[in-house]
Amino acid sequence: MLRKQLIWMFPLALLILTLSLSPRDVSARPLAQATQETQASPPTAAEIIEAVNALRIESGLLPLNTHPVLMQIANWEANAIAGGAAGHTRPNGLTLGQWLLSLGYPLSGDLSMDGYRSENWVTARTVEEALQFWLSDVPHMETMLSPNRSDIGAAVAVGDQIYLVLETALQTNSGEMQYDAYPILTALAQGGSLGGADSSVPQYIIPVKRSTARPDGDVVHTVQYGQSLWSIAVTYNTTINQIRAWNNLGETTEIYDGQILLVQKGATQPPPPTNTPLPTSTSFFMTATPTLSVSLPTATIQPESAAPDENDAPSLSSSGIWVGIILLIALVGGVVSSRINTRPLE
């Protein structure tokens, strides 16, 4: 009897156990699916561009314009890296500047140093992770925050990881190719070799700003990442050989970030600014006051009664009144006299 009861109780206990566990499993399944969907959703190119522009605005810089050429390069780059290519890879061994020119982008800057352009890439799950990595050093940060940028492009590709690529560049003020671009474009059109991607050309290029002369006439320049002896020599109107000689560089053209170079001797310091006061209203009118004081009484000041108003009635002077009275008396006297003379004699 007891054995039969146990046989019937076993299915009942199994049913109760199943019902008690079912709600827990149902609630856990959507959460696991949502987690997988979140992890599988990579950031978008638009989110990268929006985040970079927000960072520029926060830093007091103008936002960058999305440019189709930069978007095309970023997309090619991201997919190439996701496919196993090395970072900063280029088609046909081009530099980034040459690639931009070949696609019709009017690149600004010294084209012998590949122009004002730069590229960032990173593996990251979110845009925030990518930006934090790019802000950790100057070259990557300047790709986003350089004032010498006008356009932007971005792309995301998924391989074994999520790859984010950012491109920025500065185009010419006119929006047209600069003169130095045409020899490069001609060589590209003819299939000539341009030397490929030169490893000495940095991914980011900083323009050279002139330093002022010291009291002894020497001008020294602190090298920044992306500057070359050529661009420094051009800025200070000297030669590479002269800079080498002044700084004992020998035959090398290699310089490094933070290096201090003597770039000019015997230069003249700019004159100190002078605070020349602007003429005040008092001093300006001092020369005009005598002329005005002489001319005003004779030319402009007149009694108000001297100019008759067109609405005033005409008036007689006192002499005119007396003449009228005399004439009236004479007339009355003449009339009386004529009556006396014409009166009949009695």
Could you characterize what this model shows?
The chain has helices spanning 2-40, 45-58, 68-82, 96-102, 127-134, 138-145, 181-189, 229-235, 240-247, 281-285, 289-300, 318-342; strands at 65-66, 117-123, 151-158, 162-169, 219-222, 260-264. It is of the alpha+beta class and 346 residues long. The longest helix is centred in the first third of the chain and has 39 residues, at 2-40.
Short description, anyone?
The chain has 12 helices and 6 strands. It is an alpha+beta fold and about 350 residues long. The protein has a 4-stranded mixed beta sheet with strand order 1-3-4-2, sandwiched between helices. A two-stranded antiparallel sheet has the order 5-6.
Strand order of the largest sheet: 1-3-4-2
Assembly level: single chain
Tally of helical segments: 12
Classify the beta-strand content into a percent band. 5-15%
Query: Tell me about the biggest sheet?
Result: 4 strands, mixed
Give the number of DSSP strands. Answer: 6
Q: Could you estimate the helical fraction of the residues in percent? A: 40-55%
Which structural class should the secondary elements be placed in? alpha+beta
Shape: extended
Rounded mean pLDDT is: 74
Radius of gyration: 48 Å
Low confidence ranges: 23-29, 196-204, 278-317, 340-346
State the distance separating the first and last CA atoms.
194 Å
Along the chain, the helix and strand elements come as HHEHHEHHEEHEHHEHHH
